[in-house]
Design brief:
The chain is α/β, with parallel strands linked by helices and about 270 residues long. It has helices at about 1-40, 40-45, 75-85, 100-105, 120-125, 165-175, 190-200, 210, 240-255, 260-265; strands spanning about 50-55, 55-60, 60-65, 70, 90-95, 110-115, 125-130, 135-140, 155-160, 180-185, 205, 220, 225-230, 235. The strands form 3 sheets. Strands 8, 9, 10, 11, 12 and 13 form a 6-stranded mixed β-sheet that branches. The chain has a 5-stranded mixed β-sheet with strand order 5-1-6-14-7. A 3-stranded antiparallel β-sheet has the order 2-3-4, covered by helices on one side.
Length: about 270
């Protein structure tokens, strides 16, 4: 009987020690997992790769030359500059207004630099840096139509990018002016320009700096501006360290004139200076 009690005591003691060890192991794993989720900056430095979502159809911001395959634009240069500061190489991942959010959600990119407008609603889902450029929306139309003011567009079909904030802002503009619009939503800007050229839409609406890349001899940008748009660099909500780091860089480049030089290089006018 004494031997049985002694064996039970030894077994119970071993079980207690095993439980403690298991708890300790579990706590350590959970802590490490949380840390790895939040140290995006360290991951980029270790991998030496900065995966950034960029547009490939927006001249002056993010544009991929179909012949050379090279990217250009102010957002491409900013991505390269951030990568340089991190000791990394940028990997440009083409995105659209529809795909940029899901690519962040799925950790397929570290950040998005793609004319991503900062809104209160989007800030609930993603981190945004302070704006690196402020634009305003406008209309690209055919010269032969003779449109001059917002009333001329009453009842017209306006082409906008899918999942962009332009349509919502157009509805507000129409309500303010007592008019209405019809809408055609397409996936990318080149498709919208083709629709304008073919006469399937009456106007192509998006931020003016984007429209400047699509003006030709037959089209013009109307002297109408609405809905100021502030572009920020987006990252996953948990990656606060990366967002803070990019904010520090943007502030430095704003103070030392680097951003102004980029605006001049790409003939961009920041609407916040009006």
């Amino acid at each position: 009987m004494k031997k049985l009690k002694k064996s039970l005591m030894i077994f119970t003691g071993l079980l207690f020690l095993f439980s403690l060890a298991a708890c300790g192991s579990s706590t350590k794993t959970s802590s490490e997992g949380s840390s790895s989720d939040t140290k995006a900056l360290d991951k980029i430095k270790e991998s030496k790769k900065f995966r950034v979502g960029v547009k490939q159809d927006v001249p002056n911001f993010g544009f991929k030359d179909p012949e050379t395959g090279k990217f250009s634009g102010i957002e491409i240069e900013l991505a390269q500059m951030i990568a340089d500061e991190l000791g990394a190489t940028p990997e440009y991942v083409p995105v659209t207004a529809q795909t940029r959010g899901p690519l962040l959600d799925n950790n397929q990119v570290d950040a998005v630099l793609a004319t991503f407008t900062i809104t209160d609603e989007r800030k609930l889902t993603y981190n945004f840096t302070e704006p690196y450029f402020t634009d305003e929306a406008g209309f690209l139309v055919k010269k032969k139509y003779g449109y001059e003011n917002i009333k001329d567009l009453d009842g017209k079909t306006i082409g906008v990018a899918q999942s962009s904030s332009t349509r919502k802002n157009l509805e507000k503009l129409a309500a303010e002016n007592g008019i209405s619009f019809k809408y055609t939503e397409l996936s990318d800007y080149p498709s919208l320009k083709l629709s304008l050229t073919a006469g399937r839409i009456d106007a192509f609406a998006v931020d003016k700096s984007i429209l400047t890349g699509y003006v030709d001899n037959e089209t013009e940008i109307l002297d109408i501006g609405f809905a100021p748009q502030k572009y920020g660099i987006a990252s996953k909500k948990s990656n606060t360290d990366l967002n803070d780091y990019m904010n520090q860089l943007l502030e430095k480049w704003r103070q030392d004139g680097t951003l102004d030089k980029l605006y001049t290089k790409y003939n961009l006018k920041d609407a916040s200076t009006k």
